[in-house]
Amino acid sequence: MDPHSSTGRNTDVDFEDAEFVSEHGQLGGDQRVTIKEARNPNSANAVNEGSSNERLYIPEVEASTIHVVGMKFISIEVFYQTYAKLAGFSARKGGENHSGGIIKTKYFVCSKEGHKPLLIDDSYLKSRNPYKTRKKGTIRTGCKAQLMLGSVDGISFTVKKFVDGHNHTFVRPEDLHLLPAYRQLLEAHEEMIWELGTQNLGPVKAFHIMRKQYGGFEKVGATVDDCKNFRARINSYIGEYDADMVINRLTDKKEYLVDFSFEYSVDENKLLTGLFWADGLCKSNFMEFGDVISFDATFKTNKQVYKMVFVPFTGIDNHCRNVTLGAGLLASERTESYKWLLNSFVNSFGRQPKVVVTDQDPAMKQAIESVFTISRHRLCMWHIMKKVTDKVRYECATTRILKGECVILYGQIPLSLKYSRESGSS
Description:
By secondary structure, this protein is of the alpha+beta class. It has four domains: 31-177, no CATH class; 183-240, no CATH class; 257-379, 2-Layer Sandwich (Nucleotidyltransferase, domain 5); 393-426. It has 14 helices and 14 strands. A seven-stranded mixed β-sheet has the order 8-9-12-11-10-13-14, with helices on both faces. It has a five-stranded antiparallel β-sheet with strand order 3-7-6-5-4. The chain has a two-stranded parallel ribbon with strand order 1-2. α10 packs across α11. The protein is elongated and about 90 Å long.
């Protein structure tokens, strides 16, 4: 392992002896380039890299931010981070030497100091850890830029060595916000990501909203990946208690809201298998427009996490607009699951609807016949017209005459059945 790399132990750190240059002169026999030339290496003032010599880049910053041997500090980290940001690189802690419980020597180095350790292809280790690890690139270039501090009491520090030569180019000022050291999600950003998440807006959309609000990518102070990582940390913190949080939240609403209803079911492993809820607005909609309802299970959009389908109950008001009558979550689309859901619907609203419209799901059909005993079950007209193209030629199925006849026939079937039932003939 490289003894100059901070990946080693934080004790007995011994960097190479490097000549301190306070006036940006020559450092040993290496070639040196100013920060302007580093940000434009193709300029005429740039120094060509030799075959044996290493090109060094020297930051051009204000003299008040440059460290000089003998300077004393109490809070040196902030001062060096400010210098690094003005220069166009990011810094980190290198190591410390302790003696008698007191920090005697402290190092701050460039973020590109050292080299990434080589990975050993060990089949035994792979068998112990079968999970695949993401391959990451490295930014380490073995940069020797460093700041060495010494202390007697562990409180105040004195600059003992300062090496300002870097073996890499610097970041342009307009791209500094992309460096990990200067990316930070403030508390206001985290609250916005959380609040937008409650409105079904993901971290990517939350980032673009903040970008427009603050006036640019660089004004946000973070990247899209930072927003994604924050959301992932929230999900990791919630862990396996997400279902308990939902049940507790709905229980509190049922306690304080008189018209709120909800029911849930669990299996033998205490896993949530079904959930149904309806608030006061849903019940008002059902009282006015609950004669004909429709429900359908959406496709599984969360196959990797919850593996549950969303089942909304909808109706149509006097303006031909959809109104919500309730909603549910099911872990499976079997007949028993739909029976439980429809029984929860009847328990919440107190009566059965007159007409139920669904697709051609056999599990739904059996559940409706078992629970909605006095309701008429009809198939969705959209699904019927979609099936027509499978039975007849496409040219015939798309004509207005055939569509009109199907609509007329569809509207006459319930009417004839109604009269036949009232007359007792069937």
